[in-house]
């Protein structure tokens, strides 16, 4: 059989037969483009693929490497690197620092800046909307089950940038803000630290065509055990699809950071995420599997879409670090059975060779599991989402992807437009980004002092803190108090902004 190959960035795709091709790491997916069938061994440039792609002609727009995704992989969000590479931490013991943290709240943990990454939590939460084109796609679908699948794919994609990110973001100061908007993007995002103890960050992100609005707040709760750190982010995330009059909600997932005492740090999500379409009573239940010793599979997500009669209508499957698929129910169940029967061969990556192993059988001190996910997909499945390929040089830059690299860039536009409370004006983070750790530490102490003094001052005056851009409202569905934008930020009136830096 004739094979066709095409290169995509660093990836090589091999087209095996009429309708399927294999990705370099053997993820099987489908492509409908006829241009890829036929003659023997030929290389395609991705531009040809884009040109041959016609979303209106093909009945299944979701079956393709989408234009949006291709656009995203090529887009520069600004600079493509940080000014300096990260520091070598191999000589520093985290445990000596973390042991003082047991029982403390994340915002009260003061770690040396060397364990930080040069973005604050507000910026890190911006990463959740990198794949917001999935919300545009959801909005365009007329079928509610289809919409649900894209929303579920968005929920999975929104944690993807956390892969290998084992540094601590800066704790935002009370009143700190961040905005992300670009002329060429069809959405805008802004967030504010609305509470310091406990640390709550509120965000709002809206499509500029008023198709959807995504908002919520995150309060990361941290627990330490002897070997791991468990982060439970509290807070409901809400999505409104305007044209369909639909409200979806879901919650952030628990994650665990392993080997905080000895061995190599690694990180996983586990638990169930339930994406609920309250308007139509549809649900997507996603099970994030913890690392399984027997299958050696890591970062796997399995789930179903349920209709309003609680019947399974679609299978959802993938890896939050790689891609996410929709599978029809019969095939899915057979596929899951098959996988149980044929557990994968254990494979260890060379990266794990140098790790410190422990005598005990306990997984926590074991090697970092291999994360190359090899699997074959059953027929009638299609890809909903795919991660943007990693950068070769990411490991030297805190494992940031292209989007994250640009988040803290201080451009002229930022200087001109943003309020003085924007993260990008924060001096300690700026110094750290530039590699001046000593000054960064001094600045950090100064800012924390300043924040404390301001709080004491408010207490003296019996003043309460009121956020500038958010207010609490009763959630129309859950009935809880939630943080909502007061719709004033984009009027860009900064005269009342507090002086926090
Ligand atoms: C010194 C080392 C061990 C500390 C590193 C701790 C890092 C890995 C922890 C500290 C706080 C954590 C974050 C807290 C909250 C959230 C929000 C959630 O929706 C996604 C995960 C995410 C973004 C966590 C990722 C992991 C995290 C960044």
What would you note in describing this structure?
By secondary structure, the protein is α+β, with helices and mostly antiparallel strands. The protein has one domain (56-340, 379-485): Porin. It has helices at residues 46-52, 67-74, 94-98, 121-126, 133-140, 144-157, 329-341, 402-407, 412-417, 427-433, 437-460, and strands at residues 4-8, 11-15, 20-23, 28-30, 43-44, 116-120, 168-170, 177-181, 187-195, 200-207, 212-224, 229-234, 236-241, 246-251, 254-258, 266-277, 282-288, 300-306, 312-319, 323-327, 381-386, 470-474, 481-485. Strands 11-12-15-16-14-13 form a 6-stranded antiparallel beta barrel. It has a 5-stranded mixed beta sheet with strand order 4-3-2-1-5. It has a two-stranded parallel sheet with strand order 6-7. The radius of gyration is 23 Å and the shape is globular. The N and C termini lie far apart (65 Å). The model is unreliable at 1-63 and 345-375 (pLDDT under 50). It binds cholesterol (CLR). Cholesterol binds at residues 94, 115, 124, 159, 162, 166-169, 218, 220, 231, 233, 252, 255, 257, 260, 265. Residues 94, 115, 124, 159, 162, 166-169, 218, 220, 231, 233, 252, 255, 257, 260, 265 line the site of cholesterol.
């Amino acid at each position: 059989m004739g094979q066709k190959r095409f290169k995509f960035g660093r990836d090589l795709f091999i087209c095996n037969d009429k309708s399927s091709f294999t990705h370099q790491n053997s993820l099987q997916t489908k492509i409908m483009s006829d241009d890829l069938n036929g003659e023997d061994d030929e290389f395609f440039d991705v531009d040809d693929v884009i040109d041959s792609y016609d979303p209106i002609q093909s009945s299944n727009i979701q079956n393709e490497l989408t234009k949006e995704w291709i656009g995203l992989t090529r887009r520069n969000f600004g600079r493509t690197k940080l000014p300096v590479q990260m520091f070598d931490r191999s000589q520093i013991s985290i445990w000596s620092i973390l042991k003082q943290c047991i029982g403390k709240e994340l915002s009260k943990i003061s770690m040396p800046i060397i364990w930080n990454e040069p973005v604050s939590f507000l910026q890190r939460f911006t990463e959740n909307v990198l794949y917001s084109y999935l919300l545009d796609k959801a909005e365009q679908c007329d079928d509610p089950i289809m919409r649900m699948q894209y929303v579920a794919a968005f929920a999975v994609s929104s944690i993807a940038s956390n892969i290998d990110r084992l540094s601590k973001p800066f704790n935002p100061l009370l009143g700190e803000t961040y905005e992300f908007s670009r002329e060429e993007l069809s959405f805008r995002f802004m967030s504010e630290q609305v509470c310091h103890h406990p640390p709550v960050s509120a965000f709002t992100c809206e499509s500029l065509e008023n198709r959807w609005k995504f908002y919520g707040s995150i309060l990361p709760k941290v627990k330490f055990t002897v070997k791991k750190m468990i982060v439970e982010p509290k807070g409901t995330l809400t999505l409104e699809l305007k044209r369909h009059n639909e409200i979806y909600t879901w919650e952030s997932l628990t994650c665990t950071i392993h080997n905080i005492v000895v061995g190599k740090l690694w990180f996983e999500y586990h638990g169930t995420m339930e994406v609920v379409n309250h308007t139509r009573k549809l649900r997507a239940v996603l099970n994030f599997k913890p690392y399984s010793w027997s299958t050696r599979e890591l970062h796997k997500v399995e789930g179903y879409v349920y209709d309003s009669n609680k019947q399974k209508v679609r299978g959802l499957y993938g890896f939050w670090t790689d891609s996410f698929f929709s599978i029809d129910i019969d095939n899915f169940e057979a596929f899951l059975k098959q996988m149980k029967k044929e557990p994968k061969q254990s494979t260890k990556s060379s990266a794990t060779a140098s790790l410190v192993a422990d005598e005990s059988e306990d997984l926590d001190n074991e090697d970092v599991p291999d994360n190359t996910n090899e699997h074959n997909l059953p027929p009638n499945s299609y890809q909903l989402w795919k991660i943007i390929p990693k950068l070769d040089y990411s490991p030297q830059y805190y494992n940031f992807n292209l989007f994250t690299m640009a988040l803290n860039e201080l451009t002229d536009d930022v200087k001109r437009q943003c309020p003085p409370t924007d993260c990008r004006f924060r001096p300690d983070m700026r110094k750290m980004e530039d590699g001046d750790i000593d000054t960064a530490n001094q600045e950090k102490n100064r800012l924390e002092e300043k924040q404390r003094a301001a709080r004491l001052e408010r207490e003296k005056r019996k003043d309460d803190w009121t956020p500038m851009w958010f207010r609490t409202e009763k959630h129309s569905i859950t009935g809880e108090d939630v943080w909502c934008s007061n719709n004033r930020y984009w009027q860009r009136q900064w005269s009342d902004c507090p002086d926090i830096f």
